[in-house]
Amino acid sequence: MTTSEDGTLRINSVSSDVSGYYRCEATNPSGTDQKTSQLTAVNPTTEKEERETVLYRNAGEPVVLDCSVNADPLLEQTLTRKWIKDGIELSKGLIEGMGEEKVYIQYLLAEKAGHYTCIVNTS
What we know:
Layout: E1 2-3, E2 9-10, E3 20-28, E4 31-39, E5 46-47, E6 63-66, E7 69-70, E8 80-85, E9 88-89, E10 102-105, E11 116-121
Antiparallel strand pairs: 1-2, 3-4, 5-7, 6-10, 8-9, 8-11
């Protein structure tokens, strides 16, 4: 952590160790003023499994596509997932058994084949 001449606080390596309240105080002949800010450092969201998996199944077999992630508890409430098949966002009505974390295809048909992508966001 360094402070420049203009009062800027620079944190070079953010980790949970630097979470907390920071107060800046400025003083001149006219008086003193201060500002307090809170910094909350969270761990990044990561996949629990491989990023890309190629599955081969026979027609009629069930398939489960998983999009499990490890998210910091502070971010879990903001976590969203979006499923995309061949560039088109899936809605719950387009595929049976679609949940947030997994897509379940109970009976695989040729039209279900494609490139499925799960996009995870936190804010």
